[in-house]
Design brief:
By secondary structure, the protein is of the alpha/beta class. The chain has two domains: 131 residues, 3-Layer(aba) Sandwich (Rossmann fold); 79 residues, Orthogonal Bundle (Helicase, Ruva Protein, domain 3). Helix content is 40%, strand content 10%. It has nine helices and five strands; from the N terminus they run αβαβαβαβαβαααα. It has a five-stranded parallel beta sheet, with helices on both faces. α1 packs parallel to α2 and α6 packs parallel to α8. The relative contact order is 0.21.
């Protein structure tokens, strides 16, 4: 069983170690994607490839919502190249569309060459190249100044990933802990899930911080540590210490 937090400021008395910044291997296979009501439309559309109504797809969703995971699944099946929006240049268009399938991530972030992307979409349609574009928001909110590009993007099918529902957030927390080889029971998941911001990005950030705290203290992860990082007291176990 996990321990519970006392709510007392005793963590500072424990010697701390310097945690090693070891890479965490995220599992991005199709079987690792957690499907729920908030993302099932996007998942099933990717899963149906190449039975699409259009060669171009715009995939949107909040930070860390699973867009890159879906892109990874699709890229493996379609043998697609994966680049960032800032990597698209006019000179690179002929080479990029020669791939047959291309994913362009973070198209609504800074550094997008609108003229180049416009020509890439046109060239992709001419060559029959599949293109998946990801962004946090719909194209109408990107602040595009190239009217023809915005028109092309509006014509493309769009699918959105919503914020996580309760079941998905809990499942994501479990996966994040497992990715770090941390064994946590369900009481910890419920404790954290009900207290963090309801986003996958927040869950990812919290699990990373909690893992680093445990490594720094040379101790197993406990609910006491979680409560401390959340800056709250555990009313159920007020006398437990970290």
């Amino acid at each position: 069983m996990v321990e519970a937090y006392a709510g007392q400021e005793q963590m500072t008395d424990t010697p701390r170690q310097l945690p090693l910044d070891l890479p965490v291997e995220a599992r991005l296979e199709a079987e690792d994607f957690l499907v729920s009501q908030s993302n099932e439309a996007a998942f099933h559309l990717i899963d149906r490839w190449p039975d699409w109504t259009d060669k171009v797809l715009v995939l949107t969703g909040p930070e860390a919502s699973g867009k890159s995971h879906l892109v990874s699944i699709w890229a493996a099946r379609a043998k697609a190249w994966v680049i960032r929006g800032s990597d698209v240049s006019l000179a690179s268009v002929p080479h990029l569309v020669s791939s047959g399938a291309l994913a362009i991530e973070d198209c609504d972030q800074c550094g997008l060459d609108e003229h180049a992307l416009f020509h890439l979409i046109n060239a992709a349609r001419e060559r029959g190249t599949y293109v998946v574009l990801t962004a946090r928001r719909l194209p109408d909110t990107w602040g595009l100044k190239t009217a023809d590009l915005l028109s092309r993007l509006r014509l493309a099918p769009q699918v959105n990933i919503d914020g996580p529902d309760d079941a998905l957030l809990g499942a994501v927390l479990v996966k994040l802990f497992l990715d770090r080889q941390l064994m946590i029971d369900t009481t910890m998941i419920e404790f954290v899930k009900s207290r963090i911001e309801r986003s996958i990005a927040a869950a990812r950030d919290f699990v990373e911080r909690l893992d680093r705290e445990g490594l720094a203290r040379g101790k197993p992860i406990t609910r006491a540590m979680a409560a401390k990082l959340l800056k709250i007291k555990d009313a159920e176990h007020p006398d437990e210490t970290v």
